[in-house]
Specification:
Number of domains: 2
Number of strands: 17
Strand order of the largest sheet: 4-12-11-10-7-5-6
CATH class of the largest domain: Alpha Beta
Number of helices: 15
Helix content: 25-40%
CATH architecture of the largest domain: 3-Layer(aba) Sandwich
CATH superfamily of the largest domain: Type I PLP-dependent aspartate aminotransferase-like (Major domain)
CATH topology of the largest domain: Aspartate Aminotransferase, domain 2
Largest sheet: 7 strands, mixed
Strand content: 15-25%
Length: 428
């Protein structure tokens, strides 16, 4: 059985309607180099979405490759339940050093969903052990925090989340960017809310919705005023995507819990972390028989290979001055997107740093305009991915200016090509 036939016979792809998938020839990635993916026929594609927002320094980076190989010569995996190991210890130290002030403790897991799930459970248990029954959470409308049930409960994207409503707990939904609405919710439910959870500055899966300046700072102040914890989900925005290591740095905000994943290992291996304060950590301390333990964990928590990759990823940030060299590319990207924003079928271009959402005029769902644009881009040598009718660009931070220009050109050409047929004109 060849690869295509085997894929169609056995694989179930995420966020993919399989009936449509089996009707098209798949792109089979054979290898990668730098910021390019290479298919089995040797054709190269610019990785325009960082392999789902996680690649940072490019594929097959020699520094990270070497770190993973070296760790393989020691131990590939050892549990953190009752044991510890050098890579997990070293990475926890490094994360605390670069994290916003006040975050001192690191709890590992393996994906963005689990990082947010852990933060929700920690927040609830923290208040419970202080004698307060706080089972409510405030999230933002159109939020996305992952696909496990707790994370879905604080999600606000109907297409992804509404089907599972009978399985979920109810969250309070605040209007993004509306400080007054957030204040009204916290005031109306004072003493009931464990935490506010939000993606700082940019709501990624919602289509790169950008918060107004000052909103994050205002939410932090409201949480302090109403004695509520603040959980920041930086799974997508962390590790340089907005131009700083963490998005919350733009408004000098420190959360009570910080969720990290995706770019932490440079896109090499699954690893996530939930960072929190000493105050929250101490709320779980007690005698064994008090059962104040945080009863949560994963088999691959703090996997040594992943931790080694993450340590090397952080080393590369310093050695290659990644954030410093990113700033002029962010400026270039802004200029490149101006003609895209002027295309007749483009409603709006939203951007923060290297996170871009190109929203198209409305088309009938069955036309799958976003998918058509993806196929057009693939023919021209780039991999991009839509969120409905929003075309997302989030290239690796290491992308060259030349490839960045080409990526935006391909995207513009693909939008024009996919929407040029009279049958595909925007709905009235």
């Amino acid at each position: 059985m060849d690869l295509v036939a085997a894929d169609r016979a056995h694989l179930w792809h995420p966020f993919t309607q399989q009936r449509g998938w089996t009707g098209e020839p798949p792109l089979i990635v054979e290898r990668a180099e730098g910021t390019d993916l290479v298919d089995q026929d040797g054709r190269r594609y610019i990785d325009g979405v960082s392999s789902l927002w996680c690649n940072v320094h490019g594929h097959r980076h020699p520094r990270i490759d070497a770190a993973v190989r070296a760790q393989l010569d020691r131990v590939a995996h050892s549990t953190l339940l009752g044991l510890t190991h050098r890579p997990a210890i070293g990475l926890a130290q490094r994360l605390v050093e670069i994290a916003p002030p006040g975050l001192t403790r690191v709890f590992y897991s393996d994906s963005g969903s689990t990082a947010t799930e852990i933060a929700l459970k920690m927040a609830f248990q923290f208040w419970k052990q202080r004698g307060e029954e706080r089972a409510r959470f405030v999230a933002l409308r159109s939020a996305y925090h992952g696909d496990t049930l707790g994370a879905v409960s604080v999600g606000g994207i109907g297409l992804f989340h509404s089907l599972y409503r009978p399985l979920l707990f109810d969250a309070l939904m605040a209007e993004p960017g509306d400080v007054r609405h957030m204040e009204e919710l916290l005031a109306a439910h004072r003493g009931e809310v464990a935490a506010v959870i939000m993606e700082p500055l940019v709501q990624g899966a919602a289509g790169m919705l950008v918060n107004p300046d000052g909103y994050l700072r205002a939410v932090r102040e409201l949480c302090d005023r109403h004695d509520v914890l603040l959980i920041l989900d930086e799974v997508a925005t962390g590790f340089g995507r907005t131009g700083r290591m963490f998005a919350c740095e733009h408004e000098r905000v420190s959360p009570d819990l910080l969720c990290l994943a995706k770019g932490m290992t440079g896109g090499y291996l699954p690893l996530a972390a939930t960072l929190t304060t000493e105050l929250i950590y101490e709320g779980f301390l007690g005698e064994f028989e008090e059962f104040r333990t945080f009863f949560h964990g994963h088999t691959y928590t703090g996997n040594p290979l992943a931790c080694a990759a993450a340590l090397a990823c952080l080393d590369v940030f310093g050695e290659e001055r990644t954030l410093e060299r990113l700033q002029p590319k962010i400026e270039v990207l802004g200029g490149l997107l101006e003609p895209v924003a002027s295309l007749p079928v483009v409603r709006e271009v939203r951007r923060r740093g290297f996170m871009v959402g190109i929203e198209l005029e409305e088309h009938p769902t069955e036309l799958r305009i976003g998918h058509r644009i993806t196929l057009e881009a693939r023919r021209r040598g780039a991999v991009i991915r839509p969120l409905g009718d929003v075309v997302v660009l989030m290239p690796p931070l290491a992308i060259s200016e030349q490839d960045l220009r080409r990526l935006v050109e391909i995207t513009a050409e693909s939008i024009v090509a996919a929407t040029s047929s009279p049958a595909l004109r925007p709905a009235a």
